[in-house]
Amino acid sequence: MFASARLAVRFLLLLATILLVGCGSQNPPAETTGSKSVVSATVAAPPLPPVFEATAEDLMTMRLVADEAAAGWVRLFDGYTFFGWEMASAANWRVEDHAILADAGDSGLLCTSVAWCDFELKLQFKSDAETNSGIFLRSPLEPTDAALDCYEVNIAPPSKPFPSGSVVNRAKVADGKPGSESSPLTADQWHDYEMTMDGDLLTIKIDGEQTSQYRDPKPLGAKRIGLQFRTGKIAFRDIKLRPLNLKPMIDEKLSLWTTFPDKPGEFEINDDGHLHVTGGRGQSESKAMYANSVTLVEAKTLSDKLNSGLFFRCIPGSNMDGYECQINNGIIDNNPLKPVDCGTGGIFRRQNARIVLSNDLEWFSMLFVADGTQFCGWVNGVQVSDWKDNRNRDVNPRNGSRVEAGSIMVQAHDPTTDILFRKIDAAELVPFVVPHEEE
To answer: How far, in Å, CA of 269 to CA of 253, rounded?
Structure first.
């Protein structure tokens, strides 16, 4: 079911992906076309690489409504670019009319750059009558066996062993359900696909109706989400995800946190149950340690031009020695593509947020994923950072790449700090384990 790309092709794809998603220390380039500022991303696809770009206005319109973002939903696809995705084959992946399309080239996946474990995933797909494609969950970049190292939620005609609505080699769509032989899907029409991956249980729905369910006796752990091109034309759009099983970290006594009375800064729970952080320079850090993790935050700055942040994989008890997901809503020249001091959702001193999507004096959501040496941030549902730490390993993230578990830390930056947090929820990404046959 899977085609391996040749070494030379993989090198070109890797180069294209680096240009596309802004890995390493580079930021997505800001250009000016006419009177509009744009963020550009280029995909290497012979004979000439198409250019995908999004204006600040484009990305602003992709923000989720407040309640949806507060619930933890994010867009995996911004509707314009492949920011946050990595190509694993030489298919002709492209963006047209706010959708991801492919209809030629080598079979393989277009994958998220970070792993996900427990989540709800919603998207729409459109396919030809004989298209064979799928959505891969908890998958490596190049899976080899759908019964072993991933979960393949299929897109295929009823004539195939596992039609749409099935989990390949694991669970077949029930008769009479959408995608089955007695209820085939209409070709060349958008359909809703919903997947809930919760521990060992995978539940599939098409157009709002459950089609199959599979409980894995040896469940796989966190890995990527992939869109497959195999044969025929396939299109995906409106791809959204909500992580599950995050644990609240804010309680009325801040019992899950360690504070440092000898440092400036105040960390108190107000009458509304919100964490109120004032003054600085101080910190409060989680008692729990996290290595690969997902963290959801709701915050509001209480005056203009404030600076704060959440730190990850910190050295416990040290002075802000960790990776920092920045909180700073300032912009330069009234241009949200030009953040002040990294920008909210950026990785401080590593990668600026490609756009500032939050405002001072307003609640905003921020989701951050730390997966090995890959780090991604979303603000109000839109991805703003995607950075890989290629530095040499070091116990201190200020000096090199740290993969060991560490604390999560809330920062009081300076005497002007005045910020509320009404949610800090987190979960560890469960490691990916390939099951083996019993001996």
So the answer is: 7
Q: Are 230 and 102 in the same domain?
A: yes
**Considering only CA atoms, which of 205, 204, 191, 198 is closest in space to residue 238?**
191
Domain count for the chain, please give it: 2
Single residue among 188, 222, 243 that ends a domain in this structure: 243
pLDDT tens per residue, range 40-59: 343 433 333 445 789 999 99
> CA 202: distance to chain centroid?
19
Give the integer Cα–Cα distance in Å for 85 and 82. 5
Rounded Cα–Cα distance for residues 156 and 159 (Å): 8
Residue 4 lies in a domain: no
Task: Give the containing element (helix H, strand E) for 9.
Answer: helix 7-21
What's the pTM?
A: 0.88
Any idea which residue has 């959440």 for tokens?
310
Greatest alpha-carbon pair distance for the chain in Å reads 70
Structural domain contains residue 1:
no
**Cα separations (Å) of 318 from 182, 259, 435?**
63, 12, 39
Range of the domain at 148: 64-243
DSSP summary character for residue 164: T
pLDDT confidence of residue 51: 52
Q: Indicate the burial class of 217 (C-beta count within 10 angstroms; 0-12, 13-18, 19 or more).
A: exposed
pLDDT of residue 123 exceeding 90:
yes
Residue 25 lies in a domain: no
For 164-179, the pLDDT digits (tens) are 999 999 999 999 999 9
In the block, residue with structure tokens 């009081």: 412
CB 176 within 8 A of CB 165: no
**107 plus 88 within the same structural domain:** yes
Cβ pair 204, 167 in contact under 8 A: yes
